[in-house]
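Q: For a teaching handout, I want to show students what a protein-ligand complex looks like in C-alpha cell form. Below are the inputs, and the small molecule is nicotinamide-adenine-dinucleotide. Please produce the holo structure.
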Amino acid sequence: MYTKLALYIDGEWLAAASGGTQPVINPADESVLAELPLAGATQLDCALAAAQRGFKVWKRTSAHERYTALRRVASLVRERHERLAQVMTLDQGKPLSEALMEAKAAADHIEWYAEEGRRAYGRVIAPRQASVRASVLREPVGPVAAFTPWNFPINQAVRKIAGALAAGCSIVIKAPEETPGACVELVRCFADADLPKGVLNLVFGEPQKVSQHLIPSPIIRKVSFTGSVPVGKHLGAMAAQHMKRTTMELGGHAPFIVFADADLDSAVAAAVALKHRNAGQVCAAPSRFYLHEDIHDRFVDAFVKRSSTLTVGPGTDMASQMGPLTKRPRVDAMQSFVDDAQQRGARVLTGGARLERKGYFFAPTTLVDVPDDARVALEEPFGPIAPMFRFAAFDEVVERANSLPFGLSAFVFTRSLKTSIDIAAELESGMISINHFGLALPETPFGGVKDSGHGSEGGTEGLEAYLNTKFVSELGV
Ligand code: NAD
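A: Here is the structure, written as C-alpha cells, with nicotinamide-adenine-dinucleotide included.
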C-alpha cells in the first residue's frame, strides 16, 4: 500500500549515499511504514548542480512548451489521485476523503500555473526620445530552494513546484521527512511527464543541515518556505544574509468572529468543519472564537453538540471524520495548552485529553471562559482545540483579533453589509473569509501579513513570486 521512498536528483531516483535513513511512522497505529533516505552533503551538491543545469534548459524552453509539459503532469496527477491520497493518509493521518480532495486539487493547481505561465507579460513604456524603446521583461528568478511542511504534504509542495516551473525556474524541494510518501508520488508524476533532467529535484534530510547547505549556495536565487514562524524567521534571516528573494507562508492564529446578527446555523457548521479538518493542523484554521455576548451560549451549545459526535479514528477508515495528529509531540502540545488554560480558569466542555488507544489521537476539545492571557489564546494551537471568548462591541473585537503578531486568515459571520465592509477594512490579516470558507483556491492569493509571513501562493501573485523584472532601454542606431 505505501510507496517506495527515494530521493529524486538530476532525473534519477536514488537511495541515501551518506545521509543515512529515518523511519516513517503511521500516526494512526505508531507502526513503521518505511525507511526514508536522507541526502547528505554530496547529494545536496548534486541536486544544486542539477538545478543549475536544469534551469539553463528550462528557462529557454518556450512558455508554450512548459505549459504543455505541466498539463501532462496535471493529467497524471488526476489519473493517480487515489494512489496519492492513500499514501498520504498512511503517513499523515488525515481521513481519506480529505486526502482525495487534496490530491485532486493538486491537478487544478498545476493547470492554473501552467496557464498563468503563458501570461507572464512584460510591458513597453512610452519613451522620452522617439528612437528609444523602453521594455520591461519578466524573467524566471533562477533555481529555487523550497521547504514544505507535513500538514498538507501534496498541497504545500505542488504550489511551490508548479509556480516555480511555470515561471521557468528549476527547483530543489526539501519535502517533509515525517510525511514523505505523497511528495514522492507527486514528483513521480512530474518525472513520468518527461521534464528535462534537473528541473525538479526532491530531497529529504536533516532540515537544518539541508537549509544551511542550500540557501547560501550561489546557485539558489529564491527561497520559499511554509512552516512555523520561528523557523521562517530563521530561514528568512539566512536568505537575507545572502540576498535571496523569499516567500514565507508561516503560522497563523485565526480569529473566527460571530456577530449577534449572524446566521448561527451556518456559522456553527463552518466552525466545526474548519476547526477539525486535518485534526486542526491547518495554518489558516480558526483558532480563536470571538462570539458576541448575545449569541455566545447558543453558539457554544451547538458547537459542542456537533463536535462531540465527530467520529475520530484512522484516516483509512471511511467512517472517520477526524484522524490522528501527525506527530507525537503535537499530542503533548495539545495537553499542555489544555492544562494551562484550565489552570487559568477555563472550563473544558468536551474533549481535553488524548484518546486511550494506540496512535496520536486527541479528542476534539472545546474550552470556555478562556482568559486572553492563556497560552492557547496567544500561541497557535495547530490542533483540534477550540477556545471560546465573549465580546460586546465591534471596536473591542477588532482590537482583540488584531492583538497578536499573527496575520494569516480571519473569519467573520454577520448579516450586516456595513459590519462586513468595516471589519474587512480593520482586520490585520492576509485573507478574510466572510460568511463562508473561500480560501486556498488556485486562482486566489494565499498568504499572510505581520509574523505570518510575506508573499502569496496562488493567484497571479503566485507566479509573480518566481519572476524577476528586467528593464531594457534600446536606442535604435
Ligand atoms: P517546525 O517549525 O519544527 O517544522 C515545520 C516544518 O519546517 C517541518 O516540515 C520541518 O521539516 C521544517 N523545518 C524545521 N526546521 C527547519 C530548518 N531549519 N530548515 C528547513 N526546514 C525546517 O514545527 P513542527 O513542530 O513540525 O510543527 C509545529 C508548528 O509548526 C505549529 O505550531 C505550526 O505553527 C507550524 N506549522 C505551520 C505550517 C503552515 O502551514 N504554516 C505547517 C506545519 C507546521
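A: Two things your students might notice: The domain at 7-250+452-474 is CATH 3.40.605.10 (Aldehyde Dehydrogenase; Chain A, domain 1). The radius of gyration is 23 Å.
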